[in-house]
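Supplementary Methods. Inverse-folding protocol.

Structures were first reduced to a discrete structure-token string of length 88. This string, shown here, constituted the complete conditioning input.
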């Protein structure tokens, strides 16, 4: 429930994150059957990496994999994010 509330709050304050979250959900759902999927990157969600930090600090996304050259993120609760997107 907290994930849902965090997402609703973020979208009400920063509606520009709607497209980012929609693309993140889409990317994750495209890769549900891919066991090697590490997560989406900034270019997958068409967002500057600094803006993704807000998703992490708001407990909506988390860093799933990190190297010197890339960082992969996943949503903490994709279903909560989908419900929040529908509500906005």
């Amino acid at each position: 429930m907290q994930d849902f509330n965090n997402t609703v709050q973020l979208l009400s304050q920063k509606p520009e994150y709607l497209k980012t979250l929609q693309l993140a959900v889409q990317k994750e759902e495209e890769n549900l059957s891919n066991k090697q999927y590490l997560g989406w990157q900034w270019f997958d969600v068409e967002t500057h990496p600094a803006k993704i930090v807000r998703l992490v600090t708001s407990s909506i996304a988390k860093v799933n994999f990190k190297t010197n050259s890339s960082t992969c993120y996943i949503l903490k609760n994709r279903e909560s994010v989908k419900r929040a997107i529908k509500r906005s």
